[in-house]
Structure formats: C-alpha cells, structure tokens
Amino acid sequence: MLASRMFARGFASSSFQRGAKVAVLGAAGGIGQPLSLLLKLNPHVDRLALYDIVNTPGVAADISHINTNSVVTGHKGPEQLGDALKDSQVIVIPAGVPRKPGMTRDDLFNTNAGIVKTLAEAAAKYAPKAHLLIIANPVNSTVPIVAEVFKKAGVFDPSRLFGVTTLDVVRASTFVGQVKNSNPEEVKVHVIGGHSGVTIMPLLSQTGIKFSQDEIEKLTHRIQFGGDEVVKAKDGTGSATLSMAQAGARFTDSLLRALAGEKGIVEPTYVKSHVAEKDGVEYFSTNVELGPNGVKKIHDIGPVSDYEKKLYEAAIPELKKNIAKGVQFVNKA
Do the domain assignments include residue 185? Predict the structure, then answer.
C-alpha cells in the first residue's frame, strides 16, 4: 500500500511505452543515493545505470532488490563510465562536493567545475544525444560548462540541456503554504532566474495570493537562501540532499513523460534562453514546456511587480558573472 501511495503522489501513471535508460552520475553521494532510489520507483525507467568513483556496486545491489520492473547496474571508476552512459536517454548529474557552513554555491566552483567538465566530456563521447539534467552546483555555471564542452565536441543541442532548479519551486510552494496555512502541493509559484541567492526570483505576484509587503520580502529572502537553513541545521555534515533528490526525481519524471509524448508538461528549468538575452544573459530559468525532443517552448517571464523588477535588476549582473565563469573555465588556454 505504501508503494502504491508513493507512485500515486510522486509520479504520473505509466500509460506510455516504457524503455528509457537513465544514468545517474554521482549515484553514491548524498543526493545520488536517494535520487537513485526514487528513480528505481519510477515506472518510466527501464534501465538505471548508477555511476560514481566509489561504492556504486553496493548502492546498485541494494537498490536492485526493490521490486519494480527496472534493471539496475553499478559502474565504478573512470574505466566504467562509458558503459554507464552508453544508450542513455537521460543523464542526471548530481556529482560534486556539498556545501558546508559559510560556503556559497560559487565557493564550490573550483572543485565541481572540474568534475562536471570531465563527466560532460564523457557524455559527449558516449551519449551525445542524451538529455542532460545538471544538479551539480553552482548550476548557474555548470550548465554553461556542459554546453561549452558539447560545443567543442560538435554535438551541442540546447533543447537537451537542463539545469535542475526545481528545488527552488518546491521550497517556494512549501514556504508559501506555511505562511498562508494552505496545502503546499496546491501552491504554484513561478520562480525565474538562476539557482543561487539573489539570482533566484520568486514571482509571488503571479500566484493569485494576496501578500503583505512584509510577507513578500520575508518569503523572497527565505526562498532565495533556503539552502542555507539546511546547511546550518546539518552543522557541517552536508547540504540539501533529500529535498534535492525529490526535486531532481520530479523533473526527471516530467521529462521522461514528455519524451514519450505526453503533452502539456511544464516545469521550471535553467536553459539556453531568449528571455534575458536583451540584458546579455544567455542562460535563464523560466517555465518551460517539455516535449518529445526536450525543450519545446520557453515561456516568458510574464507580468511582474515593481518589487520583482528590482529583484531582476539585482540578479542580472550575478547571472552574467556566473555564466561567464563557466564559459571561461572550459575555454581558457
């Protein structure tokens, strides 16, 4: 009964043809393990390839005992990365080190940028037509890193590259629900921009809910810096892993359903976008309609309040800097 309720609440019904292979790179980590567990429960996944530099065979063996109809394989170390990637329709990358108290997502750049670049190079070689879902922080920079690697390999398709910003939307729904004493599952908040600090812009004016200015300012700050709550509460042992895994599983599920032909699926995601091009920003998160080839339609921002216009003005310089940092990392001499 519990498993049935999880499927009913977490994923849509499996009414379309199955057969997707999903690879999780960083599957033995704090996000990777619960994410892999949730993907094993997903009826749209036929093959689940788990990769990391250590411990993946054990994680795969453990998860493989769950009684759902998908085959799980474990791959450990660089020499087995190609096997994990080959024939994958979707590649999810949560690999990287977590934040610690006092660290920003940008502080993670030097370590995680190298990890993501290496994994992207392998993906471009072994699964150039796969859809890549980037969770590894800082997403504002790691998505451009993957794009530049794919450009160098001559296989870049912007409709197949996604920065997973779903956690910002999940948090926004939760925090608004708490403030307004309503069911967070029924609260829809359009969150735009990027995936760190001031680049996260919740458009509370579009919810149809009335807020005082004090509520708007407090909610906005909490949504922007919600990750810090988890880092502080974990007291040096990590950052948001369980909530990020759920958010990553949600986006993966939505994409798999869209790839199989289900219509009308819209999720927020950080992609190569026209939305902020006039302000010199190449990658931006807004609601995106997903389709059989990945990105089908990028939605515009929509109407915003004066307060939200100021959020946008503060976010743009930071986004420019983050994106440039990722591009330069790949293209430096």
Answer: yes
Q: Which of 230, 205, 238, 208 is nearest to 219 (CA)?
A: 205
Indicate if 209 and 258 belong to the same structural domain. Answer: yes
Please give the span between the terminal C-alpha atoms of the chain, in angstroms, as a whole number.
57
For residue 139, how many other CB atoms are within 10 A of its CB?
Answer: 28
- Mean pLDDT in the chain? 92
For residue 84, how many C-alpha atoms fall within 13 Å in the half-sphere facing its CB? 28
In the annotation, is 195 catalytic?
yes
Q: Is 311 exposed, middle or buried (0-12, 13-18, 19+ CB in 10 A)?
A: buried
172 in a domain, yes or no?
Answer: yes
Cα–Cα distance measured from residue 40 to residue 72, given in angstroms and rounded to the nearest whole number:
8
What is the C-alpha separation between 21 and 2, in angstroms, rounded?
Answer: 25
Annotated binding site for NAD(+): 26-32, 52, 112, 135-137, 244
Identify the domain containing residue 292 by its residue range: 166-331
HSE value, Cβ hemisphere, 13 Å, CA-based, for 68: 25
- Active-site pick, 190, 195, 274, 299: 195
- Separation between Cα atoms, residue 123 and residue 305, nearest integer Å: 41
Q: Map residue 19 onto helix, strand or coil.
A: coil
pLDDT digits (tens, 9 = 90+) for 116-167: 999 999 999 999 999 999 999 999 999 999 999 999 999 999 999 999 999 9
Helices within the chain (DSSP H only): 2-10, 32-41, 56-64, 81-85, 109-126, 139-153, 166-180, 213-224, 226-233, 242-259, 306-331
Count the domains in the chain: 2
CA 319 to chain centre: 17
Last-in-domain residue among 139, 163, 187: 163
Q: Per the annotation, where are the binding residues?
A: 26-32, 52, 99, 105, 112, 135-137, 171, 244
pTM of the model: 0.92
Provide the CATH number for the domain around residue 288.
3.90.110.10
Q: Within a domain: residue 19?
A: yes
